[in-house]
Amino acid sequence: MPIATVNPADGETLKTFDPLSERETERRIARADAAFRAYRTTSFAERARLMEAAAGLLELDEREVARLVTTEMGKPVTAARAEVAKCVKAMRWYARHAESLLADERPDEADVRDSGAVSARVHYRPLGPVLAVMPWNFPLWQVIRFAAPALMAGNVGLLKHASNVPQTALYLEELFQRAGYAEGCFQTLLVSSGAIESVLRDPRVVAATLTGSEPAGRSVAAIAGDEVKKTVLELGGSDPFIVMPSADVAAAARTAVTARVQNTGQSCIAAKRFLVHTDVYDTFTEAFVAGMRELTVGDPLDEATDVGPLSSERGRSDLEELVNDALAQGATALCGARRPGGADRGWYYEPTVLTGITDRMRIHREESFGPVASLYRVSDIQEAIDIANDVPFGLSSNVWTHDDAEVDRFVRDLEAGGVYVNGMTASHPALPFGGVKRSGYGRELAGHGIREFCNATTVWRA
């Protein structure tokens, strides 16, 4: 795949980039290694000053960088601006909380004495240069939610971004440089996917984090495992959105539309499978389908657009294959299931609701990365849980109920990294984020995320 900006709204190639040579890649790794040796000793106050400076610059650049993101990967520009604001929030959150999150931990005094020590504590130290392999769907947020905690912990970053967002990747490197970070603290590597292995095998690169597809995660995990290096993986998701009889059905249906089409449906944590109790199924379905039909599909730079183009022609073709497979095996499209009329340019697809899904259909277990919802009628809570768990993924989940016993049951039995009750999944810097099963391992954000790339050092003194 070439490293290029290709506008998804019209398919026009706007700018191409030559990949870095092996020699230049080596220079950047060496620069990261040298930068870490100095940066690791900086105080939390100095790190916070730099992070706050970067956040301020990003805030000032909001409109310009949002337009760049939209041009590169197609999300509605209003969503791109919201992504910028979310990044600024996370950067400032870590600038203010990193020191307390990484404060020394002191065991109970009785346990210290029992260990034979006069004193004991756990001290967190940074690991070194970390390789971040990041996707195109949230090209700012996915990077910042790694970079903010990693840099505040004293690590340095090497970014291998998706090949279709090279200008966003270069902007991020420039952002940290403008904020005053030393050369080498955060660098973008414009390289092909084939170059990841050599970078990860370099002994100066100590760990890796990847957000992306399951095959990409398997590859990075295998290489890192062979090198005995730490990894954090956030992979695919096919999150359930469960509606029970006690729910506010009207609110659930409104939220369901947003939960499915956020980022034009190209989000790992977007709700994709809607499991609705038979007692409220008809009411929910009528409102949900009406909401999907009312969405405006169009130019992502238009403020009125709700759903933009998919990020690539291949992405749309993959989505169409899932829909067509389901329809061929008996599913029914309640709306959409086609390209918009007159959309002969750009990679658009209408918001779609499919019902009559069976376990023979690919869409039952595969992730649909676009504005396509799978709708199921369930008879009780057990059936909802069974269908929800009948996928290889376990990223997050959404449950709508006002029955506390049902909430407890969902929290106990849903195989997911999160359970969001009477709302939709959303990441926040204060809450850990990640999944189970083939959705990956490890956690980002909160204290869990900043400690992923730290050495928890036991300090024991007699």
From TrEMBL:
The UniProt record lists the keyword NADP: yes
Domain of life: Bacteria
Gene3D superfamilies: Aldehyde Dehydrogenase, Chain A, domain 1, Aldehyde Dehydrogenase, Chain A, domain 2
Pfam family, one: Aldedh
PROSITE patterns assigned: ALDEHYDE_DEHYDR_CYS
SUPFAM superfamilies the UniProt entry points to: ALDH-like
Keywords: NADP, Oxidoreductase
GO molecular function: aldehyde dehydrogenase [NAD(P)+] activity; succinate-semialdehyde dehydrogenase (NAD+) activity
Domain Aldehyde dehydrogenase: 3-459
Sequence similarity: Belongs to the aldehyde dehydrogenase family.
PANTHER family associated with the record: SUCCINATE SEMIALDEHYDE DEHYDROGENASE [NAD(P)+] SAD (PTHR43217)
NCBIfam families listed in its UniProt record: PRK09406.1 (NF006915)
Name of the protein: NADP-dependent succinic semialdehyde dehydrogenase
Species for this entry: Streptomyces cacaoi
Gene: gabD1
